[in-house]
Design brief:
By secondary structure, the chain is an all-beta fold. The chain is built from 3 helices and 36 strands. The strands form 6 sheets. It has a 22-stranded antiparallel beta barrel. Strands 2-1-6-5 form a 4-stranded mixed β-sheet, with no helix packed on it. A two-stranded antiparallel sheet has the order 3-4. The two termini are about 30 Å apart.
């Protein structure tokens, strides 16, 4: 997605960095069912990961809320991605097979129960291990795959049942020749299965009620390079049963109401070990063993009142209540938004609200005292203008201010912001003996987007943003967060002269993110990366820019279609930095680069 709200400047990560926030702060829903993470190789306790899990051929509609969103969404500070999967073909069986350098997959669909329903299934398996060999990434083995399905059945014209299933498996194995601080294997299994009942109330409203089960199993074994000692042993099983009900009713011509409840029962098992190590500043951190079962309940209830006193104005006020039994925290979160149409082409929007989020359970599980931590909170203020430039072209301008409070700090590392350590500390939250909940942060910015829908063979999107995102350390000093790129420009679009050819491209330019230089003398002494405490997030990587291009050629036959495509990533081979790390084999600083020029050829056959 080339939206200005997203800082997508890492080719090796599919994590959503929304308006300067951490991937921890995002939520996902598919067909009214909450999905913990929509990525392969998920970062535990976060929404991030390197590769998308959802099959884009399934997606019918996406609503992406980046600020001031409705009270029907809770437990997230920055954004909600609400996805609707399409139904399968109710008239005939269709099959699509795909083969590319990245892997092989198939999608099949067809009618169900005399066309009173439909089924849609897919299976995919990667060959990323072969790709990595092709670009010279020796010593790394990566495999992943997924299965997805949607089954729809109409009980009657007003009631429809939908069964959703999403499953993924991931394996990676890296040897110690890479020189990074740790090496080892990562294995993850993700599963979501749920049933949604959609009921229409005549012309006056509808309800969606879902019951779902999700599970994510982690089996990680990592060792310290040089000593070969156990560093991380992760045997986590995170399971949740959830019930979600959303109702919408039209009271009269000017008034509508949306209300519902959400209940979840997480029951997680942690059997983990984190070895004694040093923190990012070189301080000693004792080992930590977690052998704990967490069983809890959460309940949320919301109501939104939508009022349109006259055609030009729509006002929405909402209220949400949340309670979590594990730490006995409860919150009331008001929300409000306004839409005013100046004329047929121009409208002004504004929204504000309070948003709470429970800390990741793998942080709360580290220490019984963490139950006493307050939940992080964000205050959103958003103002925007939308202008229809032509029948197919729309301009959107938004300014926002997001103020955070109650973030956890580790007093032993006063200048660091631990909620962001996923980016620079092995992709996980490490052991913290004591946490204090007085962390503050903010994100402020302005965003511009011009979007042209497909018309006269051309479509495109131009977006740009300027923002600042900062945090206050435990030492009361304000610093840039690691996601503070400052500015981004994105241009993407395509040309489709006929139904046989399509050409598309995407170019991104973004400011370099902050990073902390190593204290070279201390790092050499420990043969491990030790941050320079006087320069926390005080340096910046070079600016990021990259151009991707693709063309598709379609061949149409009587009862089938054949598609050949060529996609070229990073066309002009820009050397973008992914990160700097301490190479333990060389005992010196080293650089990890993102993808160079990479051609991807693929074949699709529909029949």
């Amino acid at each position: 997605m080339g939206l200005p709200s997203l800082a997508k400047v890492n080719d090796q990560s599919n994590s959503l960095i929304v308006r300067g926030g951490s991937p921890v702060e995002n939520g996902f829903f598919v067909d009214n069912i909450e999905v913990p993470n929509i990525n392969h190789f998920p970062a535990q306790g976060s929404s991030g990961g390197p590769i998308g899990l959802l099959n884009v051929d399934f997606i019918q509609d996406v609503n992406f809320y980046t600020g001031g969103f409705s009270s029907k969404y809770g437990e997230k500070l920055s954004s909600v991605l609400d996805v609707t999967f399409r139904e399968g073909n109710r008239e005939e069986i269709d099959v699509q097979a795909e083969l590319s350098f990245a892997g092989v997959g198939a999608v099949a669909e067809g009618p169900l129960f005399s066309k009173n329903g439909s089924w849609l299934i897919s299976a995919r398996r990667s060959y990323v291990d072969l790709l990595l060999d092709a670009v010279g990434a020796k010593g790394v083995a990566v495999r992943y795959g997924d299965y997805q399905g949607k089954f729809v059945y109409d009980l009657n014209p007003d009631n429809t049942m939908t069964l959703l299933a999403i499953s993924g498996y991931d394996h990676s194995d890296a040897d110690k020749d890479h020189g990074e601080i740790i090496y080892g294997s990562n294995n993850v299994r993700e599963n979501t299965v749920g049933l949604n009942w959609r009921s229409l109330w005549g012309k006056g409203g509808y309800s969606n009620t879902s019951l779902a089960y999700t599970s994510t199993e982690y089996r990680d074994d990592f060792f310290e390079t040089g000593t070969d000692m156990y560093f991380i042993r992760n045997r986590s099983l995170e399971r949740t049963v959830s019930l979600r009900n959303v109702n919408y009713a039209r009271l009269n011509e000017t008034q509508r109401v949306e209300f519902g409840v959400a209940a979840k029962h997480p029951f997680h098992t942690y059997d983990n070990y984190l070895a004694a190590t040093s923190d990012a500043l070189g301080g000693a951190v004792p080992s930590l063993s977690i052998n704990r079962n967490i069983s809890a309940n959460s309940i949320g209830a919301f109501v939104s009142f939508i009022w349109s006193p006259f055609a030009e104005l729509t006002a929405t006020t909402g209220l949400r209540f949340d309670y979590f039994s594990y730490n006995k925290n409860s919150h009331i979160s008001p929300r409000i938004s306004l839409l005013y149409k100046i004329d047929e082409q121009t409208s002004v929007t504004g929204s504000s609200g309070i948003f709470y989020q429970t800390l990741p359970l793998n942080i709360l599980a580290q220490n019984a005292g963490n139950k006493k931590l307050r939940d992080p909170v964000a205050y959103h203020y958003v103002l925007g203008v939308k202008r229809l430039l032509t029948e197919n072209t729309r301009l959107t301008l938004e300014v926002y201010d997001k103020e955070y409070d109650n973030f956890p700090h580790d007093p032993s590392s006063p200048p660091l912001f631990i909620i962001d350590e996923l980016l620079y500390r092995y992709g996980t939250f490490l052991n913290h003996n004591t946490l204090i909940d007085n962390g503050r942060a903010y994100a402020r910015g302005i965003e511009l987007m011009i979007q042209k829908k497909l018309a006269q063979d051309v479509y495109g999107l131009l977006s740009g943003s300027y923002f600042r995102t900062r945090y206050r350390g435990f030492d009361d000093v304000w610093r840039d967060r690691v996601f503070d790129n400052r500015f981004m420009v994105s241009v993407e679009g395509g040309y489709k002269p006929n139904d046989e050819w399509e050409f598309s491209m995407r170019w991104i330019y973004a400011g370099g993110p902050p990073y902390t230089p190593f204290d070279v003398a201390a790092s050499k002494l420990q043969n491990a990366g030790v941050f320079d405490p006087s320069r926390i997030n005080g340096a910046r990587q070079a600016d990021y820019h990259s151009l991707n291009m693709r063309f598709d050629k379609r061949f149409h036959f009587a009862h089938s279609n054949f598609i050949f495509y060529l996609s070229i990533w990073n066309l002009y081979n820009q050397q973008n930095v992914a990160s700097y790390y301490w190479n333990k084999n060389k005992n010196e600083e080293d650089t990890l680069y993102q993808w160079g020029t990479l051609p991807v050829i693929g074949l699709e056959y529909d029949f």
